[in-house]
Amino acid sequence: MTTTNFQIPSSIIQIADKDSIQWDSLNNIQENGYYAAITQPLYTISGLWQEIFRTFTYQLWSTNYNFTNIIANNITGIELYLVSQRMDRCQDYIIQLCLNGKLIGNNYANLMGGNNQLYGGMNDMWGTTLTIDDIMNPTFGIVIEFQSNLTIPHSDIMYVEQIGLRVYYE
Fold it and tell me: pTM (2 decimals)?
């Protein structure tokens, strides 16, 4: 089995989802030592009649990874390395592969996710089947969205420092 190095996306865009909060400085995710931040805090508010209000970030669609040198017969796994600062009250909402503008495979959102997370692995295809051509397609990538934690009322800023994908193949 062979693996690529973690690759960073050449393209990162944000798409509104629900009543969501925008990101600032997305190009910083592609530079070492910098980060993108949401433009206002994610928050959870308890209402008068036990209603709960929570916020979400815009979806980050990171695509166009440099997997052009893969010479293989079979993709065996995909791994995401996500470096973020989430202040313990910002949780995953969507961690899912994308291809041709659509979400594909399993959503690997982890409510207990920490600041440095690995998703997937050497024998994990995220519940989908992908070919070498799919992996090399510039629309292939990962979609990430975060939500505020519903446990206690709060207001926290969310940062993303790095998004990296690597591919296992034989």
Answer: 0.90
